[in-house]
Amino acid sequence: QIDVIKSGLNASLLVRHPDTQVLYVNFDPSILELVREVDCMERMGQEIPPAARLIKSKKNSIKASYSLLSTMLNEWKRITGLIPTNFLPLMQPHISHVEEYIR
Questions:
Q1: What separation in angstroms does the CA of 88 have from each of 78, 79, 80, 91?
Q2: Residue by residue, what is the 3-state secondary structure of the chain?
Q3: pLDDT confidence of 7, banded at 50, 70, 90?
Q4: Maximal C-alpha separation, the chain
Q5: Structure confidence by residue, pLDDT tens digits, 51-75
Q6: Which of the ends of the chain has fewer CB neighbours closer than 10 A, N or C?
Q7: Is the model's pLDDT at 81 over the cut of 90?
Q8: Predicted model pTM
Q9: Cα separations (Å) of 66 from 14, 76, 83?
């Protein structure tokens, strides 16, 4: 399980949904589950595998990255949603430019 989660940490953080093309944060909730399990193992005095200890040490960084990316995408969706439809053709080059940087 730890190796699967470690490989997931190397995956792209932002991905597009294949059908809708909407960007979303690629986050595996089993990462936080592993961190909780490591906490329990520590309290019980069990030995922690080095890979699990490494993932736990990055917990705050992982949570912060997820939170910042989620906030950024929500703001992007909110802002682009405020553009009146008749202005979308005029704004499209600017929207595309920003989406290039997001990728």
A1: 14, 12, 9, 5
A2: CHHHHHHHHCCCCEEECCCCCCEEECCCCHHHHHHHHHHHHHHCCCCCCHHHHHHHHCHHHHHHHHHHHHHHHHHHHHHHHCCCHHHHHHHHHHHHHHHHHHC
A3: low
A4: 63
A5: 888 888 988 998 899 999 999 999 9
A6: C
A7: yes
A8: 0.73
A9: 10, 15, 26
